[in-house]
Recover the amino acids of this structure.
């Protein structure tokens, strides 16, 4: 037991005997070593690595392990693999917007336990793997807008319980599984506008007491018996969800959902508010990857709107 202590003391004694210039040389060598670890073409400053706008098609190598902010926006990345960010456990801000990303492997962000902000907007994502963010408990802002996402699976945000700002606008979403947002109890901002949503599972937003910004306008809302709950929910929150309008049936088209009376939300035949699920995903859980050939929601509408653009 005392051996370790005596060796440590002797080692410190030897180091203390070095002149000041040797300490300077050792520190300079350490700093140069950190600088040499900066990926080719990128710029490194402190704990920030800036690789944006370089036309990269593959993930850069030699990203320093102590990186806290990583900017990869404005490149030509098409795929994010599980190994791309392995070992980068101090990342707090990850910028991946304005790429061509169509595939994200489940587990790609698992090492980023400190991740707080993730931007994936303006990519080619069509679906989200379940449990993609399960190892990101600190994630507070997630931007998935302006992709081609068609469905939100039940476990899409499982584990990321600290999300406060979630942007899903300007996608092709027509399907939201029951419970998809259930874990997001601290959510303050939710944007679902400019999608193909026709119906939403009952009480999908009831567990969000802090919600202050909510956008659902510019969708294909079918105001039948399955959506009656939403009118009451909106009436109780008159400052959010403005311009949320019915698209069908014809007699309700263009009316604000909050203004439609309960008896007007009707279903034909033997349907009632509990007999029809607004969204189902066949074949069990979603695939491990996000890609253009994955399953689509059963209620996806034909002729979905073109990918919208957003000014810089």
């Amino acid at each position: 037991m005392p051996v370790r202590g005596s060796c440590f003391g002797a080692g410190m004694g030897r180091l203390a005997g070095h002149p000041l210039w040797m300490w300077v040389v050792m520190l300079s060598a350490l700093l140069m070593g950190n600088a040499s670890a900066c990926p080719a073409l990128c710029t490194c400053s402190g704990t920030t690595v800036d690789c944006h706008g370089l036309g990269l098609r593959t993930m850069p190598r030699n990203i320093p392990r102590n990186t806290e902010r990583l900017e990869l926006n404005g490149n030509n990345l098409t795929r994010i693999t599980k190994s791309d960010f392995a070992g980068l456990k101090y990342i707090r801000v990850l910028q991946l917007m304005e790429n061509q990303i169509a595939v994200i492997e489940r587990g790609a962000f698992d090492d980023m336990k400190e991740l707080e902000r993730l931007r994936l907007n303006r990519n080619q994502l069509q679906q989200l793997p379940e449990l993609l963010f399960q190892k990101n408990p600190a994630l507070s802002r997630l931007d998935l807008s302006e992709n081609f996402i068609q469905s939100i699976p039940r476990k899409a945000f499982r584990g990321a319980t600290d999300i406060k700002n979630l942007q899903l606008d300007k996608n092709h979403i027509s399907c939201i599984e029951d419970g998809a947002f259930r874990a997001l109890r601290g959510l303050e901002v939710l944007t679902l506008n400019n999608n193909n949503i026709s119906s939403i599972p009952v009480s999908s937003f009831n567990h969000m007491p802090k919600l202050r910004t909510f956008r659902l306008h510019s969708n294909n809302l079918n105001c039948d018996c399955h959506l009656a709950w939403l009118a009451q929910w909106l009436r109780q929150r008159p400052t959010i969800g403005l311009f949320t309008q019915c698209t069908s049936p014809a007699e309700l088209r263009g009316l604000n959902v909050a203004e439609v009376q309960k008896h007007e939300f009707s279903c034909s035949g033997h349907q009632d508010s509990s007999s029809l699920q607004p969204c189902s995903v066949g074949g069990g859980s979603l695939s491990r990857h996000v890609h253009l050939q994955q399953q689509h929601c059963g209620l996806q509408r034909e002729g979905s709107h073109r990918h919208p653009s957003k000014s810089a």
